[in-house]
Amino acid sequence: MNGELDCIFILKPIPAALADCEVMTLSPSPIVLAVPEGHRLAKRKKVKLKAIENERHLYTANDVPTAFDYKLAEILGKAGVCVSSNVQSLSTTISLELVRRGCGVLLSSYGSVVNRDGIVLVDIEDEGAVLERAVVWRKGNGNPGLGNLVGILEGL
Asked: What is the pLDDT of residues 80-130, one digit of tens each?
């Protein structure tokens, strides 16, 4: 709002502090369950969160909860599911390697799983299991670079 940044990429919902800004919603990214090949759920196309409650869940530790952490808490709460994680890693990449090695399962956004070798992604059936991303900028921002970026994003 003070002009330091031309735009930000955030997860929706948009905070009230940005209500007067321009908002462009980007393609949604589903939340999926990453399981190792050979896992009992690997052949399923979709799964309810309730069905994964007793799995060994992996979790990426963050010093401060992220928007993704809040989204997971929301959808798990709506489903009445409590998962516990006895393994926390420092990054999604490490968590996915642990999944690949059969150490547990991971709830992640579809777009975060780049290397899928040895990993199967199973869609989550529960309502709201999607990350809605957006780019936000201050109204009247005349930076031509921002205009170019917005144009590129509109073309995707």
From this structure: 998 877 677 878 889 999 999 999 999 999 988 888 899 999 999 999 999
Q: Which two three-digit tokens encode residue 16? A: 């009230």
pLDDT 10s digits, 28-74: 999 999 999 999 999 999 999 999 999 999 887 777 888 888 899 99
The DSSP-derived string for 32-80 is EEEEETT-TTTT-SEE-GGGGTTS-BEEE--SS--HHHHHHHHHHHHHT
The domain limits of the chain are 8-26+133-154, 29-130
- CATH fold label, 29-130: D-Maltodextrin-Binding Protein; domain 2 (3.40.190)
Cis omega before residue 13 (within 30°)? yes
CB 7 within 8 A of CB 146: yes
